[in-house]
Amino acid sequence: MSSTSRPGQESLPRIARTPFYYGWVILVISGLASFASAPGQTYTFSVFQDSFIEDLGVTSTTVSSLYLLGSLTAAGMVIFVGRGLDRFGPRIMLVVASLALGLGAVWLSRVDGAWQLYIGFAIMRTFGQGALQLIPATMVSVWFVRRRAMALALMALGGSIAGGTFPLYADTLIDGVGWRSAWVAIAITSWSLLIIPAILFVRTSPESVGLLPDGDAAPEDDDDIATPTIHERAWTVSQAMRTRALWLLIFAGSAQSLVGTGVMFQQVSIMSSKGLSSSAAAGVFAVFAPTAITGQFISGYLSGRVPARYLLAAGQMGIVVAVILLLNASELWQAYLYGAVLGITMGFLMNINQAIWPVYFGRRNLGSIRGVTNFGMMTSAAFGPLPLALALDITGSYTPGLIAYMVLPPLCGAAALFAGKPPTHRPVSEGRSPAPA
């Protein structure tokens, strides 16, 4: 960790005068936010799916279709989340997202019809999978440049731990108090985790408190120590949207979103159809978590040595292998092997898909740019469960849907390669961030 001790430190705001780089505090809060996104993630809904079907009297296709519509709504809303992040700063947006996520969980505890389930899905996906993924990743990308890939891997520990523990937590709540009360408990958990830390500790950028990314010291000839400057790409969202690279990279990340969401949403049902208990199926998520962490650190290590587009292309093969293992899983150890391969692959690709955007388009308008890119990713994720649900309702088996999944990853790999190097752009001098501290 880099120390922030340097001449002129007494001129820094009090919160930045830590004996270590304040970005590490931001990293911890970001990891906590990633963990707190769990109620809006697919792995949590997977545990509740059979309860929705049985209690509300709907089919698997109906639930998946409502999930699709809710996720598409969330994909549109996340664009405004990104703009709000650039305008109001991460502290306000984290508090809003946490409050809204808890309210969405309370709403789900009271649903008694399809339209209410759609609204619940839309709220939870907007502020869970959307806002509480976009905001912490953007915070880390702003506070770290040289160490960005590894810092994002550390941040993602929160999400990976949530992926391993939250399905079991939800399953335990359902068994103990019923699925409706379980959502109330999840709401309270969400509010308790994040709101106070966000208010107390989050700041917009290193420049907003007189620091440089990674804790680097200001050059000796920089007269204004309290407002250091760096030079990097500074694309606006409209400029980025006119590049071929942005759209190719959005498509390149779609297999991870679509296939990963699809198999995790239907995972408990798929495992149950293979004769495994729901508790054993939920336990596969516990295998997913540590292996996802492994994948994140592998990509974090390689990101400083291999261009991100090559890593993004290479990771697609892991998706295909995971689907093949799921197709052939009939015993618990095979299910765990599938979970391990899927975890490594999703962790690997997740980190690459977080780190690649500031490399290509800079930090200044990253919230707005990530709003657009997350729209693409979330749209892909929205369609993920539907092929499997349709396959089950039409053929009585998940197999056709799983086979269809294997077509997309090779196309995404090719798109990553065709994206090319980061587009050239005139460097822009960045001073103190204009967003609120």
Please describe what this structure looks like.
This protein is mostly helical and 437 residues long. It has one domain (9-430): Growth Hormone, Chain: A. It is built from 20 helices and two strands. It has helices at 23-36, 42-56, 60-88, 90-108, 114-143, 148-155, 157-177, 179-201, 237-241, 244-252, 254-265, 267-273, 278-303, 308-314, 316-328, 332-361, 366-383, 385-395, 399-405, 408-418; strands at residues 230-232, 428-430. A two-stranded antiparallel ribbon has the order 1-2. Helix 15 packs antiparallel against helix 19 (399-405). The longest helix is centred in the first third of the chain and has 30 residues, at 114-143. The two termini are 23 Å apart.
Task: Tell me the layout of helices and strands.
Elements: H1 23-36, H2 42-56, H3 60-88, H4 90-108, H5 114-143, H6 148-155, H7 157-177, H8 179-201, E1 230-232, H9 237-241, H10 244-252, H11 254-265, H12 267-273, H13 278-303, H14 308-314, H15 316-328, H16 332-361, H17 366-383, H18 385-395, H19 399-405, H20 408-418, E2 428-430
Antiparallel strand pairs: 1-2
Task: Give me some keywords for this one.
single chain; 437 residues; mainly alpha; Growth Hormone, Chain: A; two-stranded antiparallel ribbon; 20 helices; 2 strands; globular; disordered N terminus; disordered C terminus
What is the H/E order? HHHHHHHHEHHHHHHHHHHHHE
Q: What's the β-strand tally?
A: 2
Query: Which CATH top level class fits?
Result: Mainly Alpha
Assembly form of the protein:
single chain
CATH architecture: Up-down Bundle
Task: Give the biggest sheet.
Answer: 2 strands, antiparallel
- Helix- and strand-based class? mainly alpha
Number of helices: 20
CATH H-level superfamily: MFS general substrate transporter like domains
- Under CATH, the topology can be stated as Growth Hormone, Chain: A
